[in-house]
Amino acid sequence: MHQIKNHIKTGFSKILFVIIFSFPFSFAQTKTNLQVFYDLVDSSVSKINTEVSTSDLKIDFSTGKYFGIFQNQVISDFTKLGRTVISGVPKDSSSVTVINYSIDNASVKYGEMERDGFLGAFIMPREIGLSGSYSLGNKIINAESFNLMYYDTLAVDDVRVIENPSFPFTQGEVPSEPFFSSLFEPVVAIGSAAIAVILFFTIRSK
After folding, report:
1. Domain spans in the chain, listed from the N-terminal domain onward
2. pLDDT confidence of residue 181
3. Directed axis angle between helix 33-49 and helix 71-80, to 10°?
4. SS in 3 state form for the chain?
5. What is the pTM of this model?
6. How far is residue 153's CA from residue 127's CA, in Å, rounded to a whole number?
C-alpha cells in the first residue's frame, strides 16, 4: 500500500510539473514597433555615413506625412558619428556634402500565431521593414536604395502595447487564433486540472 501511495504521489507531482511549466515565463521586454523603426533608421544612416567624405553635412528630407518623425533621429545619428549637420545654404558648398534622404515605406507584418508550448500563451512572428533611398549631392538620378528588415517572435498579447495609434505604419493585421487550438487546449487544461484534484484527494484519503 505504501508503494502504491508513493507511485500516486510521484504521478501527482509529474502532473503538477506539466501544468505549471506549460505556461512559459518571459522577462525580456519586447521592443515597440516604433523603437524597431528607429533602429532601422540608425542602420540606414550607418550605411550612408561610410560614403561621406566631408565632416559637414546638409540633409534634405523627403519622408512623407508620418515619416517626418525620423528626421531628428537621422540628424542625431550623423552627429553621433562625428558629422556636423548644418541648415540653410552652406557658405562653401565644396566642404559640405548634401544628402537627399527619403523614406518610401514602413510596414509591420505578423505571421500565423501558435502556442508557446503546451497551453502556453499565443506567439507569432513579427516582420518590420523600412525602405527608402538616398543620394549625395545633386546625383538624385543615381540614388541608392535601402531595404532593411527586422524579424523576431512576440506574444500576441503584446500587440496592444507595441503599436502606436498615432502612427498607422506601426500597426499590422493580427491573424486569427487557430481553430483547433482554441477548441482543444481548454478541454485538455480542464481535464488536467480535474485529474490533479482527484489525485490530491486520493492521496489525502490514504
Report:
1. 1-27+183-206, 31-175
2. 53
3. 50
4. CHHHHHHHHHHHHHHHHHHHCCCCCCCCCCCCHHHHHHHHHHHHHHHHHCCCCCCEEEEEEECHHHHHHHHHHHHHHHHHCCCEEECCCCCCHHHEEEEEEEEEEEEEEECCCEECCCCCCEEEEEEEEEEEEEEECCCHHHCEEEEEEEEEEEEHHHHHHHCCCCCHHHCCCCCCCCHHHHHHHHHHHHHHHHHHHHHHHHHHHC
5. 0.74
6. 9
Q: Which residues pair with 82 in a beta bridge?
A: none
Measured distance CA(122)–CA(124) in Å, rounded = 7
Please name the fold of domain 31-175: Double Stranded RNA Binding Domain (3.30.160)
Q: Give per-residue pLDDT as tens, 140-170.
A: 567 899 999 999 999 999 999 999 999 999 9
pLDDT on residue 200: 58
Per-residue pLDDT of 113-129, as tens digits, reads: 998 876 678 999 999 99
